[in-house]
Amino acid sequence: MAESEQKPTPENMTMMQAFEWYVPDDHKHWIRLEQQIPQLKAIGIDNMWIPPGCKASSPSGNGYDIYDLYDLGEFDQKGSKGTKWGTKDELYALTNKAKEVGVGIYWDAVLNHKAAADHKEKCEAQEVDQEDRNKTVSDPYEIDAWLGFDFPGRGEQHSAQKYHWYHFTGTDYNAENNKTAIYKILGDKTKGWAAAGDVDGEKGNYDYLMFADLDYDHPEVKEDVKNWGKWLSKEVTLKGIRFDAIKHFSEDFLREFITDLDENYGAGWFFVGEFWKDSLDDMSRYLQRMGKKFSLFDAPLVYNFSQMSKTEGADLRKVFDDTLVQIEPVNAVTLVMNHDTQPYQALEASIEPFFKPLAYALILLRNTGYPCIFYGDLYGIKGEHPFPPSCGGALPALTLARKLYAYGEQDDYFDFATCIGWVRKGTWDKRFGCAVVLSNAGPGEKKMHVGEMHAGEKWTDVLGWGRVRWRLGAMGLGFSLVRGDSDIYKEA
């Protein structure tokens, strides 16, 4: 087939989590992102997962302590008009700029619970075991709980729905006796937790996570949240949604929600869920039940990265063992770090700095998975324990290398435990290709064949870390020495 008749090779797509937990509480993050979008697009970022933009319990709340779905920084509620990130008008300016430069916006939807109720309500409840929510540890009794949501600052704009005790399955505080526990809310109908199988089975039934837990068996809850999705799709220019804490709320409802959006309001949107668990079987079954219209973050891969970064001379050949990207490559969002795994948030999943370049090369320069880079790795982390940008500041070069060079047939050279590599041979219209060599145990050697079409070329390390250039012989065979980091080579 003539080149003119061949279909163009689709560009590699890269997403970015566009915040970290300790972003300054100055209410200017929407403005920061708007200013950074052209630069992010230039280094290869195509879509941004922005933080939860709905009103939180306080002006400093990151949004996972969600108060009002329908307040995007528009109403004077919970101590401010804007959210931690900024006002609704500043959010609009961000999304308009993103559309102008061709960057998609993914919304962070927190649908599991509500926080910071406006008043207390009495209801019957029963205490349950922290580690087995199916096991009760008290008789039913009346509690006085923060479960009344009136949204006085918003009134009935955008939605007239108010929330009361009977819209929730559980809470964690009884104001009657100032006791903190997990309370399963009871009522006239059979209430309790979500049905077995509709939420994750960890801790017996993982319906309850935090705050006031929404009851998706209640028709008013389902209707109001579905209406919010419809409203949001018209209110903000989006390309998709990241769903928080999907282990903890109704799978049946979420399937209905995304099907409704996909068919009527957000056609072509990308949907990804936070199902943070190291059970690959549970993740795969979830994707099957969702009809593969959905993606999940590859938590098992993050745990592999973490363990290897803390193990001397770890076997790099096993890095993809028992990972989501290995068995569901189309539905896996690969990542190195996020706001839940950054240092001092979740040390069991943290990754040592020396391993970050290897991990990012493994998600950005291969032919499977949809990679997501982290704001804290690109710009550094603030807060009490600040960290500088990772990869020695070379993460932009890695994302750009993905955009420019990581195309075509892939050949793996996973033939030595502490020094692995692979080549991408390029395509008819993206012909450059690349070669990647990783070592976690000092200098090593690697011979790799990049294809006869590259014979006679000179390649160099795009990161500027390599000690030698590759000079390719008549058969496209290259030779390199690596110095214990990731070396990514391209045509000089």
UniProtKB/TrEMBL annotation:
Residue stretches making up the Glycosyl hydrolase family 13 catalytic domain: 13-402
A GO biological-process term: carbohydrate metabolic process
Entry keyword Hydrolase: yes
Pfam families the UniProt entry points to: Alpha-amylase
Alphabetical list of SMART domains matching this protein: Aamy (SM00642)
Coiled-coil region list: none
Keywords recorded for this protein, A-Z: Carbohydrate metabolism, Glycosidase, Hydrolase, Metal-binding
Gene3D superfamilies attached to this UniProt entry: 2.40.30.140, Glycosidases, Golgi alpha-mannosidase II
Family per similarity comment: Belongs to the glycosyl hydrolase 13 family.
SUPFAM superfamilies: (Trans)glycosidases (SSF51445), Glycosyl hydrolase domain (SSF51011)
Superkingdom classification of source: Eukaryota
One annotated GO molecular function: calcium ion binding
Cofactor field: Ca(2+)
Family matches, as InterPro entries: A-amylase_thermo (IPR013776), GH (IPR017853), GH13_cat_dom (IPR006047), Glyco_hydro_b (IPR013780)
UniProt-recorded name of the protein: Related to alpha-amylase
